[in-house]
Automatic annotation (TrEMBL), chain A:
InterPro entries: Ub_conjugating_enzyme, UBC, UBQ-conjugating_enzyme/RWD
Keyword terms, alphabetized: Ubl conjugation pathway
Keyword ATP-binding: no
Domain of life, per lineage: Eukaryota
Pfam families assigned to the protein according to its UniProt record, in alphabetical order: UQ_con (PF00179)
Gene3D superfamilies in the record: Ubiquitin Conjugating Enzyme
Species whose genome carries this gene: Kwoniella mangroviensis CBS 10435
Keyword NADP assigned: no
Name the UniProt record assigns to this protein: Ubiquitin-conjugating enzyme E2 W
Domain UBC core: 4-168
UniProtKB/TrEMBL annotation, chain B:
GO biological-process terms attached to the record: protein ubiquitination
Keyword field: Metal-binding, Repeat, Transferase, Ubl conjugation pathway, Zinc, Zinc-finger
Cross-referenced Gene3D superfamilies: 1.20.120.1750, Zinc/RING finger domain, C3HC4 (zinc finger) (3.30.40.10)
Record bears the keyword Kinase: no
Region Disordered, residue ranges: 1-33
Catalytic activity: [E2 ubiquitin-conjugating enzyme]-S-ubiquitinyl-L-cysteine + [acceptor protein]-L-lysine = [E2 ubiquitin-conjugating enzyme]-L-cysteine + [acceptor protein]-N(6)-ubiquitinyl-L-lysine
Signal peptide location: none
Protein name: RBR-type E3 ubiquitin transferase
One GO molecular-function entry: ubiquitin protein ligase activity
Length: 174, 513
């Protein structure tokens, strides 16, 4: 792997190692420079996800951070145990996430980085109070591409980069 | 799209303009003009009140149009050319609105368009600090000349800029609205910066996209939809609100017709754009039926052998049993040679009878298929145009050789073929029109016109298929074909005239669909 992402990812990794990650977020593995796994849990007693931990996978292309990484929740066995994607109206049962910040037509991330994606996901979970799958989950999962970036998401509104999420139904995928 | 003073320069300067106004006032006695049609008249057809004026522009002219506007705004507002371009694009080339907003609050107008406010330093790059700079995107270190920042002071290395701009242009097809790389910064990247950074190919694509956006944003411009054609049509007489009364068919310099209203890549007269859209959608939904497949092949009505029509007129002769029949109605041809010709109308009465005994949906499918089959039939014939031309050219050579006719004297055959093809396209759409027409007196008139044209075209098609035997028969054939072609042209113009004039006078109304 080469290109403009290498140095950037090394720096992000070095930052994580020196400064650590926010509470509730752990870097589980970054053995491959281009594929990292984070563990995410929601803090506090108020959350409907109390006691649950989710694994978030990020795959970086060599155009990162000009291109967004491929981000999804893990649905398989890992060395440390089994992970399931959170029950959430924007998370499909195959781990794909419908969030406008993960779409490709955005500005490069000078403020956002791998940890910031985790924080955004954490707040997405924290603000939810209904454990349910998105509408049309089964239909989507049956025919979805393995790379969620290939899905053409249709967002209800254009919130852009930030904590807020918008969705919904995958209009069409190629 | 431009100020009043400028309209004269690139909207109305064509010579048709005066004619158009005259036609508008005095246009009642025109259809007969075609009776004495000569080839010379076909070169410059008389304009009808339902015709629009248009001009064909080259890409360079489109670029010049933009530059002219940019120069004007540049001097009026005293801003650099690239800022003028960004402002104009933001205000969709409406320079009046731009000026109004700008003089109202210059800083706000610039800000809204993605430009730095006039007070802020825009020449930051000239006072670069020395030393090394770490690009916040790739985290690599660079000396300052290898970095770049716009007026907004967000600095990145040129490699990241190139990667970003190339991705936006090539990957996402963006042009006028490429913003600064900094999250949330709305500053628009200027043309000259993009040209300076990206490769030649990408810069070319960027400018193509800018031009495409200019044409797409302008209600008076439209790209010629034909493959490999790079002309642009300019027409200011067919705004969207007029499309209920006008079918603005125009001809590009590439020689092909198109509809300025909807961009359909051929003439769809006499049918209105929105009806064409309905029809196409219906055909896409319904035509995958077994019934549609049946439209391509038919069984001889006598011996039942399967026949595919591969060109020519509707007068079919079965190769197997020699039975002569009509391809459209499948009835015996003997009934068609005389005045009786029932092929063009869907018998409403039998439709009612059918509804009595069969499900309603079945009847409506049948009604649709009736019109669709006739539409598809002409579509199919039109697809065999090239072959028809070839055959006729061969025949013209033959006539020149055996009949001692000069090249100019055999041109009548080509003109006849042109008339047939033109009429077939009109007939094709007339069936779409008939499908959607509400039944009233006007419908009767329409169907009469349609039937007359249908018959005239068939006769001419038949004459053109005739074999040439000797010099005498050539002379007679020439006479017959010329007469019949003139008749087809006349019937064609009557049908067009009645219908298109009807739209203007709102005497046609759509049925319930």
């Amino acid at each position: 792997m080469s290109g403009l992402s290498t140095k950037r990812l090394m720096k992000e990794l070095a930052d994580i190692q020196s400064k650590g990650t926010p509470e509730g977020i752990i870097l589980l593995s970054a053995d491959n420079m281009d594929e990292w796994v984070f563990l995410i849990s929601v803090l506090g007693d108020e959350t409907i996800y109390k006691g649950e931990t989710f694994a978030l996978r990020m795959k970086f292309g060599n155009r990162y951070p000009i291109d967004v990484p491929e981000v999804s929740f893990i649905v398989t066995f890992l060395a440390n145990g089994q992970y399931q994607p959170p029950m959430h109206p924007h998370v499909y049962s195959n781990g794909h996430i419908c969030a406008s910040i993960l779409a490709d037509n955005y500005q490069p991330w000078t403020v956002l980085n791998a940890v910031a994606i985790c924080i955004t996901m954490q707040s997405m979970l924290a603000s939810n109070n209904k454990k349910e799958r998105p509408e049309g989950n089964d239909r989507y999962v049956r025919s979805a591409p393995s790379n969620p970036k290939l899905t053409r998401w249709h967002y209800d509104d254009d919130v852009g980069i930030g904590i807020k999420f918008s969705c919904h139904n995958p209009a069409k995928w190629v | 799209m431009s100020s009043d003073g400028d309209n004269d320069d690139f909207l109305y300067e064509d010579e048709y303009d005066d004619e158009f106004d005259q036609d508008d006032i005095d246009s009642t006695s025109e259809p007969d003009v075609y009776d004495a049609m000569s080839p010379a008249m076909e070169e410059a057809p008389q304009k009808k009140p339902y015709d629009v004026s248009w001009k064909v522009k080259t890409l360079q002219e489109i670029i010049d149009m933009q530059n002219k506007e940019i120069t004007k705004v540049q001097s009026l507002l005293e801003v650099p050319a690239s800022s003028a371009a960004i402002l104009l694009r933001h205000y969709v080339w409406n320079s009046e609105k731009l000026q109004e907003q700008f003089w109202n609050d210059p800083a706000q107008a610039l800000e809204a368009a993605g430009l730095s406010p006039p007070s802020s330093p825009t020449t930051h790059t000239s006072t670069q600090p020395t030393g090394v700079f770490e690009c916040p995107i790739c985290c690599m270190e660079y000396d300052y000349p290898s970095t770049y920042s716009m007026g907004c002071d967000h600095r990145f290395c040129k490699d990241c800029w190139i990667e970003y701009l190339s991705g936006k242009i090539k990957g996402e097809g963006e042009s006028a609205k490429i913003q600064c790389m900094e999250s949330g910064c709305k500053r628009i990247v200027r043309e000259e910066i993009i040209d300076d950074l990206v490769t030649h190919d990408i810069s070319k694509r960027y400018h193509n996209l800018l031009n495409a956006a200019f044409v797409a944003d302008s209600p008076t411009l439209r790209w010629c939809p034909h493959p490999n054609c790079e002309y642009i049509i300019e027409c200011s007489q067919a705004p969207t609100r007029m499309l209920n009364q006008l079918v603005p068919t125009v001809q590009c310099k590439c020689g092909d017709d198109l509809c300025f209203g909807c961009g359909y890549s051929a003439s769809h007269r006499p049918v209105l754009c929105r009806i064409v859209k309905l029809w196409e959608k219906k055909c896409a939904d319904d035509s995958e039926t077994a019934n549609w497949l049946q439209a391509n092949t038919k069984e001889c009505s006598k011996c039942q052998s399967t026949i595919e029509k591969n060109g020519g007129c509707n007068h079919m002769t079965c190769k197997k049993c020699k039975w002569e029949f009509c391809w459209v109605c499948m009835g015996p041809w003997s009934e068609h040679g005389t005045s009786w010709y029932q092929c063009n109308r869907f018998d409403e009465k039998s439709g009612i009878d059918a509804r009595d005994t069969q499900a309603k949906s079945r009847a409506s499918l049948e009604r649709y298929l009736h019109y669709f089959n006739r539409w598809a039939n002409h579509e199919h014939s039109a697809k065999l145009d090239a072959e028809f031309y070839q055959k006729t050219e061969k025949k013209m050579e033959q006539m020149q050789n055996s009949g001692n006719l000069s090249w100019i004297e055999v041109q009548f055959a080509k003109q006849a073929v042109d008339a047939v093809i033109k009429a077939r396209i009109t007939l094709k759409w007339s069936y779409c029109m008939a499908f959607y027409l509400k039944r009233n007196n006007m419908t009767e008139l329409f169907e009469d016109n349609q039937r007359d044209l249908e018959r005239a075209v068939e006769n001419l098609g038949y004459l053109l298929e005739q074999n040439i035997s000797d010099t005498d028969s050539i002379a007679k054939l020439r006479q017959d074909i010329t007469n019949q072609a003139a008749y087809v042209q006349k019937r064609h113009d009557i049908l067009m005239d009645d219908t298109l004039r009807g739209y203007l006078e709102v005497s046609y109304s759509a049925g319930d669909w």
